[in-house]
Structure formats: structure tokens, C-alpha cells
Amino acid sequence: MPRVDFDRDLMALQDELLLMGSMVEKAIAKAMDALKRRDLEAAREVVRDDDLIDQKQFDIEDHCINTMATQHPVAIDLRHIVTVLHISVELERMADYAEGIGKISIMMGDEPPLKPLIDIPRMADKTADMLRRSLDALVNRDVEAAHRVCGDDDEVDALYDQVYRELLTYMIEDAKNIRRATYLLWVAHDLERVADRATNIAERVIYMVTGKMAEVGASTY
Question: pTM to 2 decimals?
């Protein structure tokens, strides 16, 4: 395959990844909106639509494998393909967290949250911003921007700790609050993990550009 065709293939692969990233970002936003508005049908849609994101990840994986098998890329081109492959996995996991928030909304039913949602939506906004900027760093090959994404994970962790302490207080004050407080803890935990995944994406961008793998933020299990 001529170089121009290979470059076009790499660009198509990146475009698929960006589309998947947009799908994930919308899933997180929709899951949070469903939680705030107690919209159970919207929550069910988030759960159903997770299959579409799973399929997109499979398609990207197939594309990556086919490109590596037929083009035998080396150096930066190989790192680019491997990075796209790894990022698609991170995005699929993010979508699972959005699905998890949708399922929590369904479990809650028509019951309102234990307390007004303030810090949890802030966590959601911050994680969505980290996701967008990590993918922008990929497109622009911007190592400094990727490092900034990694640094922002501390802010999300601090918000999570704040939510945890507040909800723990509710539990201690009245055992009847435990169930509803636990629902919100699960949501906060899912969002904290989304931020970790965005950090992983940024780390992969740094690897793609520099060829050096270094853990500069949170790791995931």
C-alpha cells in the first residue's frame, strides 16, 4: 500500500476512535441527566446503547489488527495503531461506567436522591472535560496537554473524597440513609474511574509521541 493510502487508513482509524469517544461522552452525560431528572426511560436507553459502544470497540480492534497484519508498521506508526487499540479499550470501560450509572438510576426507581446533587455533577463535568482533552491531545500529538489531563485526576479524586465523607456522615446519622447513600457512592465511584481511564488515555498519548511508557497518573485494574 502506498504511503498516502496508509496515512489515510491511519486517519480513518483515528476518526473511528474519536466517534467512539463522542459516543462515550454522550452516554456519561445522558446517564447523569437521567439520574438528576429521575428519567428511568433515559437510563434504560443508556444501558441498551452500551451494546453499540461495545460493537464500535470490536470494529476498531478488527481494523487495528488488519492494519498491523497487512502493513507491518514500525516505529511511530506502530505506536499509533497500538495506542488506538488501547484507547478503544479504555473508552469501552468508560461506557461500562456510564451503563452502571444508568443501572443505578433504574434501581433507585422514582425515589429521589438522598441529597441534592452538587459535587457529583461537578465530578461528571470534570471527567467529561478530561476525556475530551485527552482525545484532543491524541489528535494534536500534544504531550504537554496530555500531562495536564493526568494532573487533573487529583481534582476528581478530591471531589470523590468529599462526596464519600459527606455520604458517610449521612449513614452514621441515620441507618435508614444507608441504601440511598450507597447508590450515590456507586455513582461517584464510577465517575472517579472514568477520570482514571481518561488519565490512562493521556498516558498512552505520551507513549505514542515519545515512545516512552511512564505512569504519570492513576492506573486502573
Answer: 0.91
